[in-house]
């Protein structure tokens, strides 16, 4: 056995254990008896302790030093393990444990504060989380930029400065599109009615099948929040149902099918290695968003959906497939990121990105955060936040310590824009298939050009190789301009 | 931190990890996508490797040597960890891995041989398993009796000799009861009809509730084989449905509720310690069997069930509650242990116990096993085995290396007999409650006298303390004589 083989064998077991921990998380959100929360916390903590011990195992350093990888894949495997080992080793075990404990408690405190619309109950805890995260960021950065060090966990191979430049290009274009759309004479009708849970779930399963979801390696369950979980031979998704809003369930499902299909589409040879997972959260979001938006909210696919929904619910209050397309893509003022349309979504992200960089840099104090959020929201969206649950309290990310995560959502949209342009060039009969409720020609193009590579290439190169052009926000912005100009007759 | 505290903290994590591994097994049998089998095998192997490393960790030996436990519970904890550590350490890692690999493969080969009714396809594999188990038994026995060393895994604190003496008392009494019942003039009617799955499941859930199953810490799912899984705050059961045989689903459910309730009934202070689980398989089976038989198949409970089933299925072909009681307890000739009635069940166990002792001792060659099984079956049951799937191929235990497991089933019945006698003395209004579909007075007696103690006392002492008398088969035999004399008017 060479050092590389030893390293790989050790990593294989670590990957398997990490997959087990993720499965426990799925279990907790879907089928676990409600009385088992303390036990599950103990089980998760035990798994995390084992995983941390393995990730910081000193033998990894020895194997890395002695490994002689051959070819692109082996070289990348070594680089990815080295990065994870270095990161895990930089954070003192005391800090890691303190972070795990504090963020776990903070999540509950945040949920209660949100329910009570009482940010003052939660801000002291957020302050604690932030202090620990700043300490972690400094340890990880090792002299470099602390925010970039946190970003690396979700979107390696990029920097906050690069993302800021991207957002500077996007913001004015999105703001002006938003104004034009909201001021347009034509405003799409709103879907109304009662849409029973069982029918929504049946339709969602049909949509998952339309996008080629592999049922032999996946399943759909109900959960409070939609998410996807797992990889290789077992990637499951969840969805949720609001009986007055069927698009919520349908498009959440398609979104999560995008995430799961990315994992299931990775070259099986990469399973149980660091190549066997989506390369970054931005790359991941590119798949979920292109499934959901560029494919799922297209004129062609909504044509099929319009007729399916009409059949399933015995008629809709929307008259034509054209109107239905407009309804699905309706832009309305709103406070909540997760409910935002394609035009406004990235503006929500940018607000968070700027505030969290200020928090990590120490330029913004948690005590001033509500004021800062509200002022910024008014400036970007033209409306005042009506209550904290619709403002600062809406997202779980900061309470659980996920600073550096938000920009990956917008990056995913940018990647999706690039991929959509190339895919439409390469797959001329895409709309014809979508109109029949078959998204698989698009899905196959994505699997071949993006998904199968797993962690082999950094996200930027992955998208550039797939599209034949460097990453740029132009494709997304042009797509949005054209789409919404058509819908709103701008 | 004292050595005892260190030992306990380490054990706590091991117990949590072991609970995770068990949850994975549940997932595999109930909700896992069918295409995930290879991945799951890899995940289970990784968990087993971690657990084996922990169980044989040399620090355990040091902590054990230095530990100064105080009181009954701490002393017992130390003894149980010492036993597990000694056992794990005696088996060479090479042999443990070989056993895991061989038995995992053997299970598939056995399933196929059973489906094809072809023992010759499977016996060479069984021979391999047996060789490895004999090697393991010799390593574990450390000069003592090899069969007893295997038995210890399932029923510590007893020996094959003790069990054999018990069986010698039971066999003639059971054989003569069996002859009397099968030769009786009155033969109970058979339940006939079509019993839809959904209604069976609804009834089974009602039965689980009647036995006080704690739904906040459990759930019921469908699986190929009924089983219970997990402990402390999370013990789930499975059941199965045959639409022509509703008793199968109903009594499997009650049986598994017995197993799960044992685990859920243990003193919560024992969670994540070796005291936090059923003390032996015999003790476990005593709970599942007393729930299923002495309570669930009683005249009083079947009265309630008769009316519930009549309502649920719009009438039955059984006229009276008396007839229904007889139907539920019907004794018929049969080849299959898991389908056996209360009279014949233990005879099935005794056959396997004698044969497996001969196999482990090297007195019986696998090549002669089919002949030995068939001869013994003819002698004990008076009918010739018609085909191997109804004989040697019916049980999964030997292929997966579970030698020493079978006698615990009969031991559980003996324990249940002892407990039933004491419970009926202590809970005079038991039948009155059962007739209302409420088994909880019995369940509460069992929780107080058996379940809450977890692993605190060896099984024999547990039953003796609960009943005020040493373990003896008399109570079971007298219960069976009286019950079946009444039903068959002997």
Alpha carbon gap, first and last residue of chain A: 66 Å
> Count of helical segments of chain A?
20
Report the major sheet of chain A.
3 strands, mixed
Q: What is the CATH class of the largest domain in chain A?
A: Mainly Alpha
Content-based structural category of chain A = mainly alpha
Notable traits:
homodimer, 490 residues, mainly alpha, Neurolysin, domain 3, 2 domains, three-stranded mixed β-sheet, 20 helices, 3 strands, 63% helix
Structural summary, described in words:
Two copies of one chain form a homodimer. Chain A has 490 residues and is mostly helical. The first copy, chain A, has two domains: 3-151, no CATH class; 157-490, Orthogonal Bundle (Neurolysin, domain 3). Chain A has 20 helices and three strands. The first copy, chain A, has helices at 3-30, 37-55, 58-66, 71-90, 93-116, 123-141, 146-151, 160-182, 197-210, 246-265, 281-295, 299-312, 321-328, 345-361, 369-381, 407-426, 430-435, 440-449, 459-467, 474-488; strands at residues 220-222, 228-229, 236-239. The longest helix of chain A is centred in the N-terminal third of the chain and has 28 residues, at 3-30. Chain A is globular, with a radius of gyration of 23 Å. The mean pLDDT of chain A is 96. Chains A and B meet through helix 1 and helix 2 of A and helix 1 and helix 2 of B.
């Amino acid at each position: 056995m060479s050092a590389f083989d030893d390293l790989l064998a050790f990593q294989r077991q670590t990957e398997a254990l990490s997959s087990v921990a993720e499965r426990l998380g799925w279990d907790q959100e879907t089928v676990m008896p409600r009385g088992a929360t303390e036990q599950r916390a103990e089980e998760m903590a035990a798994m995390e302790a084992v995983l941390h011990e393995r990730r910081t195992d000193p033998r990894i350093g020895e194997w890395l030093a002695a490994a002689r990888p051959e070819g692109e894949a082996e070289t990348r495997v070594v680089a990815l393990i080295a990065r994870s080992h270095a990161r895990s080793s930089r954070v003192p075990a005391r800090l890691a444990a303190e972070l795990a404990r504090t963020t776990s408690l903070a999540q509950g405190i945040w949920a209660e504060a949100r329910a009570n619309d009482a940010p003052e109950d939660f801000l002291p805890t957020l302050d604690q989380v932030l202090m620990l995260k700043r300490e972690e960021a400094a340890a990880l950065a090792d002299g470099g930029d602390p925010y970039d060090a946190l970003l690396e966990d979700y979107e390696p191979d990029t920097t906050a400065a690069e993302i800021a430049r991207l957002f500077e290009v996007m913001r004015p274009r999105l703001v002006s599109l938003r104004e034009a759309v909201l001021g347009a004479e034509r405003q799409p009708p709103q879907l109304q009615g009662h849409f029973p849970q069982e029918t929504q779930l049946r339709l969602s399963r049909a949509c998952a099948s339309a996008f080629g979801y592999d049922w032999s390696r996946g399943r759909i369950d109900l959960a409070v929040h939609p998410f996807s979980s797992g990889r290789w031979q077992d990637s499951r998704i969840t969805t949720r149902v609001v009986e007055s809003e069927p698009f919520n369930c349908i498009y959440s499902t398609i979104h999560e099918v995008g995430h799961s299909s990315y994992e299931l589409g990775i070259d099986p040879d990469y399973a149980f290695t660091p190549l066997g997972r989506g390369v970054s959260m931005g790359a991941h979001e590119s798949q979920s968003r292109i499934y959901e938006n560029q494919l799922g909210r297209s004129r062609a696919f909504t044509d099929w959906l319009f007729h399916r929904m009409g059949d399933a619910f015995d008629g809709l209050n929307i008259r034509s497939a054209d109107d239905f397309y407009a309804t699905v893509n309706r832009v309305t003022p709103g406070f909540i990121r997760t409910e935002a349309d394609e035009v406004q979504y990235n503006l929500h992200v940018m607000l968070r990105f700027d505030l969290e960089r200020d928090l990590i840099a120490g330029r913004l104090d948690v005590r001033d955060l509500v004021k800062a959020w509200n002022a910024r929201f008014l400036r970007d969206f033209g409306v005042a936040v009506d209550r904290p649950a619709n403002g600062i309290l809406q997202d779980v990310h900061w309470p659980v310590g996920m600073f550096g995560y938000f920009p990956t959502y917008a990056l995913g949209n940018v990647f999706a824009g690039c991929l959509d342009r190339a895919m439409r060039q390469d797959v001329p009969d895409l709309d014809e298939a979508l109109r029949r409720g078959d998204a698989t020609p698009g899905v196959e193009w994505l699997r071949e050009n993006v998904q199968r590579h797993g962690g082999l290439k950094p996200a930027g190169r992955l998208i550039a190789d797939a599209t034949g052009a460097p990453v740029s926000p132009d494709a997304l912005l042009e797509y949005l301009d054209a789409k919404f100009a058509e819908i709103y007759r701008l």
